[in-house]
């Protein structure tokens, strides 16, 4: 009797299992809960806000994967309010997934992403494995300048927005850059030729002079430059060149003056 009872229980269990497997899973809520449901107007306003003079939000980001069941390892999972994010560790050798993730936050949210690493010696993080840094980059000032330009080349290669120079001269021991004021000065000045405010001023001035001398449209020439477009975007370039954006209270004061004269 006990054996028969066991057989009956097994049969019932198998029947339930087969029935359960034969039933399609019911989707209770088909809404996409991973990507935020935001309007394009929201993102336009977000990008415009980040171009204004405001307290900026900055943070470091590590273990970057760019995809997954959750957004914790993706740049798109960062708060929309983040202005600058510094990529620590996994900023190189970008695959298509991380490239897409990077482009999304830059173009959609207006977030700017930076390469970040400690610089102690010429060639840190960029010297090919197994090669002596001095032999590869050169000695003294020449090696420092070549190294600084290689960092800028890397920024351009992957489409980053800049470099977070992790300045820790007391980390470990002083190198041939870190902890040596003269070498640090050469390094920073060389970086500044291609990134930073000085480079931006020179680039805009060059485009403006060329447009004026050759009868070109300044706005259209700015939009042709990949560096300018990447930093500002076509919409922001147009907005910045709109006279109404930088006249301040002049129109209002002019109207008041006219009204006063008419009385």
Summarize the helices and strands and which ones pair or pack.
Blueprint: H1 2-21, H2 40-50, E1 58-62, E2 84-88, H3 96-108, E3 112-118, H4 133-137, H5 140-158, E4 162-166, H6 181-192, H7 197-213, H8 218-224, H9 226-232, H10 234-240, H11 250-262
Parallel strand pairs: 1-2, 2-3, 3-4
Helix pairs in contact: 5-6
Brief digest:
The protein has eleven helices and four strands, in the order ααββαβααβαααααα.
State Rg: 28 Å
> What structural category arises from helix and sheet content?
alpha/beta
Mean pLDDT: 84
Which shape, going by the Cα principal axes? globular
Estimate what percentage of residues fall within beta strands: 5-15%
Taking the alpha carbons of the first and last residues, their distance comes to: 112 Å
Strand order of the largest sheet: 1-2-3-4
SSE topology string: HHEEHEHHEHHHHHH
Helix percent reads 40-55%
List the total number of helices.
Answer: 11
Q: In this structure, how is the largest beta sheet organized?
A: 4 strands, parallel
- Low-pLDDT parts are 4-14, 16-20
Work out the number of β strands: 4
């Amino acid at each position: 009797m006990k054996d028969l009872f066991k057989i009956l229980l097994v049969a019932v269990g198998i029947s339930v299992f087969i029935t359960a497997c034969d039933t399609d899973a019911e989707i209770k809520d088909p809404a996409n809960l991973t990507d935020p449901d935001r309007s394009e107007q929201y993102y336009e306003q977000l990008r415009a806000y980040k171009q204004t003079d405001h307290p900026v939000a900055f943070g470091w980001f590590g273990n970057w994967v760019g995809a997954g069941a959750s957004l914790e390892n993706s740049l798109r999972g960062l708060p929309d309010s983040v202005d600058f994010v510094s990529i620590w560790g996994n900023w190189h050798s970008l695959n298509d997934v991380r490239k897409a993730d990077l482009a999304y936050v830059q173009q959609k949210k207006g977030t700017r992403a930076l390469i970040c690493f400690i610089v102690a010696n010429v060639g840190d993080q960029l010297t090919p494995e197994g090669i002596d840094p001095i032999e590869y980059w050169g000695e003294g000032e020449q090696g420092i300048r070549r190294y600084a330009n290689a960092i800028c080349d890397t920024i351009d290669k992957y489409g980053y927005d800049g470099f977070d120079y992790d300045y820790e001269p007391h980390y470990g021991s002083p190198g041939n850059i870190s902890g040596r004021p003269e070498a640090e000065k050469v390094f920073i000045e060389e970086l500044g030729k291609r990134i930073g405010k000085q480079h931006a001023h020179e680039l805009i001035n060059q485009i403006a002079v060329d447009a004026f001398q050759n009868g070109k449209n300044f706005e259209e020439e700015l939009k042709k430059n990949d560096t300018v477009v990447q930093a500002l975007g076509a919409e922001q370039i147009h907005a910045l060149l709109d006279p109404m954006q930088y006249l301040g209270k002049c129109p209002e004061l002019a109207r008041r003056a006219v009204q006063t004269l008419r009385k």
